Amino acid sequence: MKTKDEILKEKILDGADKLFQKYGLDKTTMEEIAREAGKGKSTLYYYFKSKEEIFDAIIQREKNEFFNYVQEEVSKAPTAVEKLKVFVTIRFKRLKEITNLYNIMITEVKAALNLDTICKPNYRQQYDQKEANIVKSILQYGIVSGEFRVFSESEMDMMVFVFMSAQNGLEMDLIIYDRLDEMLTRLNFFHEIMLSGIRK
User: Fold this and answer.
1) Does the predicted TM-score (pTM) go above 0.70?
2) Helices vs strands, H then E, count in the chain
3) Considering only 47-51, 57-61, 113-117, which range has the smallest mean pLDDT?
């Protein structure tokens, strides 16, 4: 059962989320967020110091929902190979549905190529660490189930790093050249190459 404070904060976040998706962070004001939530600015400032703090809260909420969904779907797959396939497919499709998280990641990728650009907080780094943990758990499951060869801890960490780096590199290129429609096909191709190298 949610408290009144929790319900009110959710209402503020829901209202702000609509505005951020429509106008973006820079063009949305605290006054507009308060109006959208049906509350006064003083109420808004009681819970959040700034629109950036509200945006951070929305991103955290979306990240939690996203990773709960990915982990739930991965857990349903019976084998490590299928778990990795589910991870790659569901992750991409679900990520595109989460507007704020996906857009901020694209912004960070593009900003990373322009050193003069002042980046927003590094949501991508937090996101990558959670993803790396999921990939590592799938690889460990594959070793225990006998699907994959046995690797040392350092080799495992290296595999996770290579997997994540290759995946992120593919994403970066396809985002830069606006070829998102090709991303899933290319990620699956990379996935098959990686699997051929670690299967027993």
Assistant:
1) yes
2) 9, 0
3) 113-117
